[in-house]
Specification:
The protein is of the alpha+beta class and about 180 residues long. The chain has helices at about 5, 60-80, 140-150, and strands spanning about 10, 15-20, 25-30, 30-35, 40-45, 50-55, 85-90, 95-100, 100-105, 115, 120-125, 130-135, 160-165. One of its GO terms (cellular component) is cytosolic large ribosomal subunit.
Length: about 180
């Protein structure tokens, strides 16, 4: 039995949810998001709560149960608070600037990297070594942050590169004489 799936998702004030078939649409102050569940589960909205129930006792239904409940919780969190990832840039001469919908990264290449920010995500750089990725869709925010980090992953010797704020870089010893 899924411990997460058993809990219902509570809808805070100002948030509404509607189910049509297997699609849940959540509207809130920051926008509208939707999620389409598989046929292995059923979704019920009642008394400002969204409940997820498996339709059978198969392994796939039990797997989808907790995952679907978490995805619906992410929709509710996204339309009320939003999601935010913070990236740090370490390295001499490494910096970032935002110009319109383009993030310009100087990462030690012979050229400047221009990263086009997709719709639905806001990228800001208050300092030239810090990047904030914000939006209402958890998956999209995480994917954009991962795509930015992919340009220069942190290396283990000096720690140069782009890393998440709470990420720990395991350091290696350099050459020994």
């Amino acid at each position: 039995m899924s411990r997460i799936g058993k809990k219902s998702v509570k809808l805070p004030a100002g948030v509404s949810a509607a189910v049509s078939g297997q699609t849940v649409e959540v509207k809130g102050p920051k926008g509208t998001l939707n999620f389409t569940a598989t046929d292995d589960i059923s979704i019920v909205v009642a008394n400002d709560e969204v409940s997820v129930v498996p339709r059978s006792k198969s392994k796939r239904a039990r797997q989808q149960w907790g995952m679907s409940r978490t995805c619906i919780q992410n929709l509710v969190t996204g339309v009320t608070e939003g999601f935010k990832k913070e990236l740090e840039i370490n390295g001499v001469g490494y910096r970032a600037t935002v110009q319109g919908t383009t993030l310009k990264l100087s990462l030690g290449f012979s050229h400047e990297v221009n990263f086009e920010v997709p719709a639905g995500v806001t990228v800001t750089s208050p300092k030239n070594t810090i990047i904030f990725v914000e939006g209402i869709d958890s998956q999209l925010v995480g994917q954009v942050a991962a795509n930015i980090r992919e340009w220069r992953k942190p290396e283990p010797y000096k720690g140069k590169g782009i890393k998440y704020k709470d990420e720990y870089i395991f350091r290696k010893a350099g050459k020994k004489k």
